[in-house]
Specification:
2 domains; alpha/beta; 29% helix; Ribulose 1,5 Bisphosphate Carboxylase/Oxygenase; Rossmann fold
C-alpha cells in the first residue's frame, strides 16, 4: 500500500471517507481538502439508478447556476451575417461561419461551447466526427441551436451549463471554484441537484439518486447525503 505524503495525510484527517456529509459541510470540506496551487474547480458527480443504454432512461438537461462556474467559457457563434453583431455584443469570443467551419475541419477546437442557428445546422453535419467526441456539437435540447444567439451567449457566459448521464449512469459537472464562498458552492450544488431530480425518467425504477459526491481538482471525493439538499 502506497505511503501517504504529509499533505495527503493532513487532508485525510479532515474528513471521514465514505461518510455522508450534509451539503453545507461537504461544501466547506471540498474547499478545505483542496491541495492544488491553482484555483481548482469544484466538481459535482451524481450516480443515478438508470440504464443510459435505453433511450427512455437517458437523463440530459441544462441548468443556470446562480453564481456561475467561475470558469471563463469560450463561446463560438456560427451564424448568418445579420446575426454577427448581436453575437459580438452579447460577448461571444468568436463569431463567423464558413471560415470557422473550415478551421474546425482542420482540427481547431479551442472553444468550450458552440452556439448556432437552426438554418445553419445543415452545414455542421460534416463536423460531427470532430465535435461529437468532444461534446461540442450544438443541440436544441441544450439551448445551443436557437435563432436568439445573443440571448444564448449571455446565458452561457452567466453560468448556464448542460449535462448528460454517461454510459456508467453518472453525471459529472464543474459547478464552482474552490475560491467561492461555501454558501455559493452549496447554492450551485442545490440548483443542479434539483434540476437532475426533476428529470427522473418514468421508465426508471427503484432508487433514482444512488450517490452524490463533491470534489476539487486533484482533491478527494466528499460523499453527500442526497436528503440534505434544500427544497
Amino acid at each position: 500500500m502506497a505511503k501517504l505524503t504529509k499533505k495527503q495525510k493532513a487532508v485525510s484527517e479532515k474528513f471521514e471517507k465514505g461518510f455522508e456529509y450534509n451539503i453545507s459541510d461537504a461544501s466547506r470540506l471540498v474547499k478545505e481538502t483542496s491541495t492544488s496551487k491553482f484555483d481548482a474547480s469544484v466538481d459535482f458527480a451524481v450516480r443515478l439508478g438508470v440504464d443510459p443504454r435505453k433511450a427512455n432512461q437517458m437523463v440530459r438537461g441544462i441548468v443556470s447556476l446562480p453564481h456561475g462556474t467561475g470558469k471563463e467559457t469560450r463561446v463560438l457563434v456560427l451564424c448568418t451575417p445579420d446575426k454577427e453583431q448581436e453575437a459580438k455584443d452579447a460577448g461571444a469570443d468568436f463569431v463567423g461561419l464558413d471560415d470557422y467551419i473550415e478551421k474546425i475541419q482542420e482540427g481547431w477546437t479551442d472553444i468550450d461551447v458552440i452556439i448556432t442557428m437552426p438554418q445553419v445546422m445543415a452545414k455542421l453535419g460534416k463536423l460531427g466526427k470532430v465535435l461529437g467526441p468532444r461534446g461540442l456539437m450544438p443541440n436544441p435540447k441544450s439551448g445551443t441551436v436557437t435563432p436568439e444567439v445573443g440571448k444564448a451567449v449571455k446565458e452561457v457566459k452567466a453560468g448556464k451549463i448542460d449535462f448528460k448521464v454517461d454510459k456508467y449512469g453518472i453525471i459529472h459537472a464543474s459547478i464552482a471554484k474552490v475560491s467561492f464562498d461555501t454558501d455559493k458552492i452549496k447554492e450551485n450544488a442545490n440548483e443542479i441537484f434539483h434540476t437532475i431530480n426533476k428529470l427522473k425518467p418514468t421508465a426508471a425504477k427503484g432508487t433514482y439518486v444512488l450517490s452524490v459526491y463533491l470534489s476539487s481538482t486533484m482533491g478527494p471525493g466528499i460523499k453527500v447525503d442526497p436528503k440534505s439538499f434544500e427544497i
